[in-house]
Amino acid sequence: MKAAAFAYRRVNSLSSGLVQVASAGDTVKVMAGSQSLGPMLNLRLARPGTLIDISAMEELRTASLEGDTLRIGAGLTHAEIEDGVFDVLANHPWRHIAGQIAYRGIRNRGTLGGSLAHADPAADWILAAWTFGAQVEIASRQATRRVAIQDFMTGAYSTVLNADEILVAVLLPQFPAATRWGYYKFCRKPGEFALASCAAVFGSTPASARVVIGAQDGPPRTLDALADQVAREGIAGATPAAIDEALAEAIPGKDPIDRKFFASVVRRCLEQAHGLREIA
Ligand SMILES: Cc1cc2nc3c(=O)[nH]c(=O)nc-3n(C[C@H](O)[C@H](O)[C@H](O)COP(=O)(O)OP(=O)(O)OC[C@H]3O[C@@H](n4cnc5c(N)ncnc54)[C@H](O)[C@@H]3O)c2cc1C
User: Fold this and answer.
1) Is the residue at 279 inside a domain?
2) N or C terminus: fewer CB in 10 A for the chain?
3) Ligand 1 atom at minimum distance from 38 CA
């Protein structure tokens, strides 16, 4: 099948992009790397009247440190993050996460902002943003707003983005070198979306600990009691019973086989965070 007809405009600056999305009406859609939108157009699951191509928007293709906050432009591709093209990302865990997304060809085009805006529950950036305490910066012609990632994704393929808004950047709190972390996902084949995924961070205080599972029916789920227990007791706190209990609470209706996948994925992620398993 081929895409239904649409008007196409390519913009080079954020200001002109915001004018275009504001004036093109409700059927406007922004296009970044087109790795998710492209297939949806061809399957006619998306039928925008106008496509605004933002892939040449340089303001969205930067990464910088602003005080204690790491600001990553929404237009950076997965490959640019993986390659640590910007110095501020050179030693950041997100490089490793980027390298696990799909295949290199998709990573060369797909963007951080496109992935978050698409809000696929199995997407890597959604889980990573949740776990690393991200905020997103969203601009319209009238205003710029910052939204915590937990308030950004409202369900599967659903966010608070309005048609006249563009996701501009992702803001991350600084990541102290001593912070332990893990990221583990189970895919049927390398390069495919995860069937089960888990990310974890353990900072200097128990309050900073987070264990989060992705690949749900909607947004990721946090395993707070497990995070607290592991922060206090180390990997010894990640007993099979503690993991099962955390999953029973977080995903009560899940098929028992799926729960087993998640239990393995959580366990392996926690082992990574404690240096007992290599991070891919
Ligand atoms: C075969 C295949 C395998 C994949 N495997 C994985 C995987 O393992 N893990 C994973 O996480 N992803 C995977 N993906 C998805 C991939 O990461 C996409 O790149 C990503 O989901 C979308 O990014 P994009 O820049 O291509 O966005 P686009 O496809 O251009 O846009 C996607 C959506 O986001 C909106 N949008 C894009 N940018 C903005 C913006 N700045 N502001 C507002 N709205 C915006 C668009 O309007 C559209 O609704 C896979 C894709 C394919 C085709």
Assistant:
1) no
2) N
3) 29
